[in-house]
Design a protein that fits this description.
Layout lengths: L9 E3 L7 H14 L5 H8 L9 E4 L6 H9 L4 E6 L2 H10 L7 E5 L5 H7 L5 E7 L4 H5 L25 H7 L2 H12 L4 H14 L5 H11 L2 H4 L7 H11 L2 H15 E11 L2 H15 L16 E3 L9 H6 L7 E7 L3
Helix pairs in contact: 1-4, 8-9, 8-12, 9-10, 13-14
């Protein structure tokens, strides 16, 4: 549950700062730099599941805590377990959420450990689960993390910098065939082989350790006519490397079924995804559990599905939200409710 002594890898918001002044400054700075995507729609979709006496929600991708903050303000009996693999994000979120002492438990973990995290805290079913997938605002805006092609930084891209291989290791050590596969599969990059071949050539001269160097290499690898439209040509390469380094697709495929099993009756899950690879995984997982089971050849009523889709297809952000927050442009929203045991 949300109370008790913090376990290893766990933060309690009441222990984050030694002074109220520090908490206030940290809270203000985090709030100013982070605008949650699809905030109102997310609250609208989750709200019917959070009206009980002591509801639980897992924010499986806490980030800077923007969604969680608003949900805790709206539902005064709500308890939240916030999970993030990024220690810096957890530290910043703990400032923002310090005012909800006793109602929040922050856990350093990857979200495919969602059931283990809940069970270790005595929670065996929850009323709501939120996934806000992809790279966070903080990670994009931190010039030293290597996520952004517009900032000079080391090629890292690990969400948890305490483990795993960096993007630099991938770029400088992987063979041509594997680099091509990564760019094609995870970046949906049609010039994957050209870019990978150029990487192999360049690293013979010297290691590629810089975001700007890689972004320029990608630009030079793509035909000039293609470069004139579609935004920065490095976007797909950076996306592919980030997804591979953080094993995002495999983790997501494991996680959605785990989370669905955690939902209580009438519990709801909302997923915000930002590219087609993520959205396809979520769509399939939701479709698999919401399809009515019909036994062929038997004169009986179809067996009701245990889950019901709340969004018949994925939803996007409104024009107004995109104008206010450009990072909402690519969001796809899906939601589902548990209807039977």
């Amino acid at each position: 549950s949300g109370g008790g002594v913090p376990r290893s890898g766990e933060h309690k918001t009441s222990k984050t700062s030694t002074a109220g002044e520090q908490r206030g400054e940290g809270e203000r700075s985090v709030s100013q730099e982070h605008v949650p995507v699809a905030l109102e729609r997310t609250i609208e979709l989750l709200s019917p599941a959070l009206t009980g006496a002591s509801p639980y929600l897992i924010d499986a991708t806490l980030g800077l805590g923007g969604h969680t903050e608003k949900l805790l303000e709206k539902f005064t009996q709500l308890h939240v377990i916030g999970i993030d693999r990024d220690k810096k994000a957890l530290e910043k979120a703990s400032y923002r959420l310090a005012k909800f002492e006793g109602r929040v438990t922050l856990v350093h973990a990857i979200y495919d450990q969602i059931r283990q995290v809940a069970h270790e805290r005595g929670v065996h079913e929850v009323n709501g689960i939120l996934f806000d997938l992809g790279v966070s605002s903080m990670q994009l805006d931190s010039s030293d993390r290597g996520f952004a092609y517009s900032h000079e930084a080391p090629l890292d891209m690990r969400m948890d910098q305490s483990q795993g291989i960096s993007a630099s290791e991938v770029v400088n050590t992987f063979p041509l065939e594997e680099l091509t596969r990564i760019l094609r599969v995870y970046g949906e990059e049609k010039f994957a082989h050209r870019i990978a071949s150029r990487i192999i050539q360049e690293r013979k001269v010297g290691a590629l350790n810089s975001t700007i160097a890689l972004a320029n290499l990608v630009k030079e690898s793509i035909p000039a006519a293609t470069r004139r439209s579609g935004g920065n040509p490095a976007k797909r390469t950076f996306q592919a490397l980030r997804i591979y380094v953080n094993n995002e697709m495999d983790v997501l495929e494991r996680t959605i079924p785990e989370g669905l099993q955690l939902l209580a009756l009438h519990g709801r899950m909302v997923v915000l995804s930002y590219h087609s690879l993520e959205d396809r995984i979520v769509k399939k997982a939701f479709t698999d559990v919401s399809a009515t089971e019909v036994l062929p050849g038997l004169p009986v009523e179809p067996r009701p599905a245990p889950y019901e889709l709340l969004t018949r297809s994925s939803e996007g952000a409104s024009d107004q939200e995109i104008a206010d927050n450009p990072r909402a442009q690519s969001v796809r929203i899906r939601a589902i409710e548990r209807k039977a045991a």
